[in-house]
Amino acid sequence: MRALCILHDAYSTTGLIGQALRARGWDVDELLVVPAERFEAPGVELALPDHRDYDLLVPMGAPWSAYDDALIGSWLAPELAWIADAVHSGGAVFGICFGAQAMARALGGSVARGPRPEIGWTAIESEDGSWLDPGPWFQWHFDALTPPPGATVLARTSVAVQAYQLGRSFGVQFHPEVAEADISMWLGNGGESVARAEGVDPAVLLAEAAREREASRVRAGALLDAYLGKIFPA
Question: Whole-angstrom Cα distance, residue 123 to residue 132?
Fold first, then answer.
């Protein structure tokens, strides 16, 4: 089985989700959209592969907004069309944070600034109670999505929809892939000032990540198993 993870910026990794896929025997390819040297001018051109070459597409997080066409439209518009075509042709897409927002927009939902940001470890409320662990899951987002027509909302917080499913595709607002190293990298590349501006202590984020280290790994694997079990039944 083959998965393609879309890394929208150089400070994102496949993290715990990539590890879990590889541990389960998947071949995982990675496609970087905006290299580090273009971070301040992210309007790059993007060549996307044929989605039919993959069993699973995983568009991941990004520091930009999924509605910022003026800044990243050069690659956002093609990616939205690519995601929509994959879903409409029966493909499986697992969108994470920005990826979930992009998928929502691609399929007729919307994305806008949320009522307030969520940064840190947050418990989610499951709508069906069947297969989403309440967490806590790591969050870092300012925007919130409205799911596309026909989607089932699986979880939420008081701030935003946290998970939804449409056919074989699944989107989560939180970051199941994130481990300590990812948070440290984000903080070291502009995130520390963002967190402090929102009243979040970076040291607390890292301490909580250390405390959640093993539980996060287990939760990420269980989330992946539950989703894959639904779309690739034995």
Answer: 11
